[in-house]
Amino acid sequence: MKRFFLWIIGVALGVVVLLGAVMAVSYSFTGEGARPAADVQFGGQALEVNGSCWQVPLVGGVLDRVFAEPDTLTVQKLGTLYDAHPALALPDWATYTTLTIETDVGSLVFAGSAGQYEDFLFPANGSYKATMTVWRLPNDLLSTQFDGGTNGAIHKNWGQEHPARPTGWYRFSFRFTLQASANVELSAERVEQGGIVGVAITGMAGDTAPTLETDLGSVSCTRSPSGWRAYIPAAYNASAGAHEIRITVNGETISRTLTVLPKDFGTAEVEAEPAPTEAANTEFRNNIWPLYELPVREKLWSGGFICPAENYLILLDFGQVKVTNGQQGSRSNSTKLYTIPGDPARAPADGVVVFAGNLALTGNTVVIDHGCGLRSYLYGLQTLSVSRNATVQKGQAVGALGEEMTMDFKLGSKSVNPWLLFQTSGGAFWRENE
């Protein structure tokens, strides 16, 4: 029995020695190369590590070896960057990032995560200093819970990952000069009457909205993730030929040329209608015309629009010349549909109701603002089921249809071809998520 106990003790000591030897070998052969590569870029330039702390698992994650480098006063100089939103590129292993950016006099302009930085535009050109920490943390472990200790120390592994992986962070300190200049792109340089041309303004610093001038209509810019966006209407009666587009950004004026192409929309036979009363015209002007000049709101639509009526026949289409008793009249800026009474009148896209009421000239009327100056005007409904300031979603019923409905889609005060919106065609859908 005594020999048996001595044998058990000997085996246990052997196991301890063996484990110690394995750990010693694992410790000695686990170097800084076991950490993930610090492959981080800002503005297309590789950043140099300025401080780090990593716990690298040993013996299948039983323990960790810590590699730590204290921060230094060294600040990497990136030189001059020419993009108002220098790109931040992170390695695949990054799970959490903190970034602070200050002016050269120490005024804070940004503090947040990498995701929040995606929507950030610098307030002005100038010199900046940035500090960034890029973490690799297991799920459910907060950066405030991580403590790597001192260089070379052995810590027990967190045990939150199987198999265990390195946990820690790299820190970067860098400075740069921003010298951004605006870049203007058009979705197309030629557009048919009735179409829409998208405008993307990127590469600029500051929060002041650019101004856009053109004889095609009143156009306002709204923010987009990468800068600013705007939409130019080529109305059904826009003059064919070249039109100058002037965009002013931070005192700099950029010119582009847009060519409008004529389009034959055809003709339609219509019956003579009695002239509206002056009171009806005045009521319409007082209620509807001010909507053309409403301040633009952010873009609310996503993807194609839908026709407000699901079942219909076209009585008079957008752009068609009206023919009455053989005589040609004016061109139509709207589309009149024969519809099924009682069917729902649907919101063509997400938006906000800016008018809902009964007018002598157009009957029950709903106007929906879809953002960026684009609004839908639905006339002649049987009943209304929404009120002013209501938020509506694409396809939502805003009322019931009667025998006829007229729809007019305008950018500002200029009517555009609704069928292009229904077909997800043209500049209204260009670079939609940028």
UniProtKB/TrEMBL annotation:
Pfam families: Peptidase_M23. Residues 337-405 form the M23ase beta-sheet core domain. One of its GO terms (molecular function) is metalloendopeptidase activity. It comes from the Bacteria. Coiled coil: none annotated. This is Peptidase M23. It comes from Faecalibacterium prausnitzii. The lineage of its organism: Bacteria, Bacillati, Bacillota, Clostridia, Eubacteriales.
